[in-house]
């Protein structure tokens, strides 16, 4: 295999049709998440303010989540969860580069990667994930979340949409 063949093999493996779009979405998600967290902690000083009511169903509050959703896996330490987030991000990047057949799939994967990397940085820098948004209604409080979490959820919804509806349409059009 020549140097050009090797370069093309690696480029094909790490860069594909939707890679530029994916990289832009990852960067935008990551920057928005980290900028918001920095502003909430250092400028707005949410930790000093305590719970701030924004609407009857939304409060701002500072929670440092050392686990995952609902505080699960809090005893694992930040490095294990960070390593897992980075590994999943690499796998999803390769998936985006090699097999993404639609913009919705590429955007969905990129949202998940951007959100996962934003939360991974928190684990390294803060020792846990900084969460701020608390939705509640009728005495029920949903978990406290951040912009990265929203990106991950939207990305998963996009993956489900692509899996159930886009793939079905592709299959019916191929028949």
In short:
By secondary structure, the chain is of the alpha+beta class. It has six helices and four strands; from the N terminus they run H-H-H-E-E-H-H-E-E-H.
Descriptive key words:
alpha+beta, 66% helix, 175 residues, four-stranded antiparallel β-sheet
What is the N-to-C succession of helices and strands? Answer: HHHEEHHEEH
Count of extended strands: 4
* Major sheet: arrangement of strands: 1-2-3-4
Global geometry: globular
Task: Tell me the radius of gyration.
Answer: 19 Å
**What's the N-to-C terminus distance?**
38 Å
Query: What is the percentage of strand-forming residues?
Result: 15-25%
Count of helical regions: 6
Q: What structural category characterises the helix and strand content? A: alpha+beta
Q: Roughly how much helix do the residues carry, as a percent range?
A: 55-70%
Mean pLDDT: 87
Question: Which spans have pLDDT < 50 for at least 5 consecutive residues?
Answer: none
**Biggest sheet features:** 4 strands, antiparallel
Commentary on this structure:
Helix content is 66%, strand content 15%. It contains 6 helices and 4 strands, in the order αααββααββα. It has helices at residues 3-14, 19-43, 46-49, 78-99, 103-126, 147-174; strands spanning 52-55, 58-65, 129-137, 140-145. It has a 4-stranded antiparallel β-sheet. β3 (129-137) and β4 (140-145) form a beta hairpin. The mean pLDDT is 87.
What does the secondary structure layout of this molecule look like, with pairings?
Elements: H1 3-14, H2 19-43, H3 46-49, E1 52-55, E2 58-65, H4 78-99, H5 103-126, E3 129-137, E4 140-145, H6 147-174
Antiparallel strand pairs: 1-2, 2-3, 3-4
Helix pairs in contact: 2-5, 4-5, 5-6
């Amino acid at each position: 295999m020549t140097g050009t063949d090797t370069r093309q093999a690696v480029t094909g493996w790490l860069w594909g049709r939707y890679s530029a779009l994916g990289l832009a979405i990852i960067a935008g998600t990551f920057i928005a998440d980290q900028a918001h967290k920095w502003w909430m902690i250092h400028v707005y000083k949410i930790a000093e303010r305590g719970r701030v009511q924004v609407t009857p169903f939304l409060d701002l509050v500072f929670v440092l989540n050392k686990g995952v959703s609902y505080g699960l896996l809090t005893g694992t330490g930040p490095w294990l969860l960070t390593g897992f987030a980075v590994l999943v991000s690499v796998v999803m990047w390769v998936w985006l580069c090699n097999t993404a057949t639609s913009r919705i799939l590429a955007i969905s994967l990129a949202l998940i990667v951007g959100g996962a990397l934003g939360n991974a940085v928190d684990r390294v820098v803060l020792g846990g994930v900084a969460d701020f948004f608390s939705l509640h209604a009728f005495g029920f409080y949903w978990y406290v979340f951040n912009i990265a979490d929203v990106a991950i959820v939207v990305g998963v919804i996009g993956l489900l949409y692509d899996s159930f509806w886009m793939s079905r349409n592709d299959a019916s059009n191929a028949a």
